[in-house]
Design goal:
A hairpin with a 5-residue loop joins strand 18 and strand 19. By secondary structure, the chain is an alpha+beta fold. It is built from 15 helices and 22 strands. Helix 2 crosses helix 15. The structure holds flavin-adenine dinucleotide (FAD). This is Amine oxidase domain-containing protein.
Length: 470
């Protein structure tokens, strides 16, 4: 082929164009000493890692305080543990994970800001309760959980000694020995036995609540919860708690990266942190002066992070419980009953874990809500199989033949992150909180306080002045 002057120019122009397209498509940056190609670079005041309860709250509040934000979330939606099933037949929503919040100004203001209406609600669930030994499937018609009132009153008196545990992990040292006792021993020491069954049901997700250090139980089941049990919690008027996150997603617009995986985090620069993210439309580098960290700080969740020796040594100490939710379809079980798992072989007749806490109505015919717990993480296949086989063996009067299947299933694991009493006494949380503000990073989320969205929003709100300071 003969190269003429004009097609030589065209080819040269084509190469230039290609080169410039490539330059746009792949910029080169260095993170943690490794050169990487990125498709685009965005700069924000704050990059928020995780778009669940605290990540979304941080994004909305920081935006309102005049900061530019970018949220990085691995799932295809904001909301984390908040999940709503929409029945395809009736369109009826059912919240099968987060159900209620505390009746507090911070909660009401946040929902008003996102234009989601709230109503009062009890946390007790609906449906007449019936007790079954889920291991044998047999009903326990004579079982009663008893009156928890005396135990609850004595527990409230104990809680009043440690008001600071409801605000975070700013503990008093030496840590009071009662807070380090396995909760089962604490119950006996202070004659709280009558509330044993109630607390097991309420503190779902904590694994073996009676083996956990009392500190974690008090943080999860504190005085404001006791108050709200009496006066009522809040839930969404539409009974669709995901609305909060749908409205937040619309509000935040392009400042959310969904379905996005963190490839690397480099916080070595004095001026800014760099977060390299694989998004559905390419690799994005987010540069920001501050990071808000809201994800479970387990080492396996932090691949690609430039963890310091201290961060690594702290995060590796966390153990976690397992918590799973599902909606059961075609089980043949009545749709209006609340079935509680009771074991004749446990101290407070609480469910033996791993296993189902119970099966409750969804308000939708033929669909039932299932909660499942374990002391550590389990494979999803094992949990699903156990849910189906347990449901199949329940000998409930009036049961019809069913063909049980899971309409939805969700893994909320790792759930409660804990460290042993010795670590707590030795200042683990003092060192953990010492990380606040170091290396551009501010920490919030359940591992830094407790699994309670309302209390977590309070905790996050208290961090904002530090995050917004120049
Ligand atoms: C079944 C169930 C019922 C509950 N009921 C209530 C209730 O009624 N009221 C209440 O107040 N609380 C309730 N909770 C607890 C509440 O959901 C949690 O306390 C709260 O969601 C914790 O907020 P968070 O921001 O720490 O975590 P999450 O809300 O879980 O948010 C973390 C987010 O980070 C994302 N993420 C994780 N790792 C990465 C990563 N590597 N990269 C990017 N993104 C990542 C996750 O996908 C998630 O969206 C319930 C929890 C469960 C599981």
């Amino acid at each position: 082929m003969t190269l003429t002057a004009s097609n030589a120019l065209l080819s040269f122009g084509g190469i230039l164009l290609l080169a410039s397209l490539r330059a746009e498509a792949a910029l080169s940056v260095t993170l943690n000493g490794t050169p990487c190609s990125v498709d685009n670079i965005v700069t924000r005041d704050v990059c928020i890692i995780g778009g669940g309860s605290t990540g979304t709250y941080s994004a909305i509040r920081l935006s309102d305080l005049g900061k530019t934000v970018m949220v990085v979330e691995e799932k295809n939606r904001l909301g984390g543990h908040t999940e709503t099933y929409h029945d395809p037949v009736t369109g009826t929503p059912h919240d099968y994970s987060v159900v209620v919040w505390h009746d507090l100004d911070i909660v009401r203001n946040y929902f008003a800001r996102l234009n989601v209406s709230l109503v009062k609600s009890s946390a007790g669930g609906s449906g007449a309760k019936q007790y079954f030994d889920f291991q044998t499937g047999k009903p326990l018609p004579n079982y009663s959980p008893g009156d928890p009132t005396p135990g609850l009153a004595a527990y409230a008196a104990q809680l009043a000694k440690y008001p600071y545990v409801e605000e975070g992990f700013d503990l008093h040292y030496p840590v009071p020995s009662d807070l380090l006792l396995p909760f089962g021993q604490f119950v006996k020491k202070h004659n709280l036995q009558s509330m044993g069954s109630l607390i097991f049901g309420f503190a779902q997700g904590l694994g073996d609540v009676f083996a956990q250090p009392t500190l974690y139980v008090m943080k999860n089941f504190g005085s404001d919860i006791l108050k709200n049990i009496k006066t009522g919690f809040l839930t969404t008027a539409e009974h669709d708690n995901s609305l909060l996150y749908e409205h937040a997603t619309a509000d935040l617009g392009p400042n959310v990266l969904l379905n996005s995986q963190i490839l690397a985090v480099d916080r070595s620069d004095r001026e800014e942190a760099k977060v390299l993210v694989k998004t559905p439309s390419g690799v994005t580098l987010v540069k920001s002066r501050k990071l808000v960290f809201t994800i479970p700080p387990k080492l396996e969740n932090l691949r690609g992070w430039d963890l310091s020796a201290l961060e690594r040594s702290l995060f590796r100490q966390f153990s976690n419980s397992g918590y799973y939710t599902a909606i059961l379809r075609n089980s043949g079980l009545p749709s209006n009953l609340s079935l509680v798992n009771v074991s004749p072989h446990t101290e407070y007749n609480h469910a033996a874990l791993p296993g189902l806490y119970g099966i409750t109505p969804t308000g939708i015919e033929n669909l039932l809500d299932v909660k499942y717990g374990s002391v550590n993480g389990l494979p999803d296949d094992q949990v699903k199989k156990d849910i189906l086989s347990t449901a199949a063996r329940l000998q409930v009067p009036g049961r019809t033949t069913g063909n049980p299947e899971l309409a939805v299933y969700s893994r909320h694991t790792p759930f409660e992150l804990t460290v042993p009493p010795k670590a707590i006494a030795g200042g683990f949380y003092k060192r953990l909180y010492g990380l606040q503000g170091q290396r551009h990073t501010y920490y919030t989320g359940a591992a830094f306080h407790t699994h309670d969205s309302s209390l977590l929003w309070q905790f996050t709100e208290a961090l904002l002045p530090n995050i917004t300071a120049v």
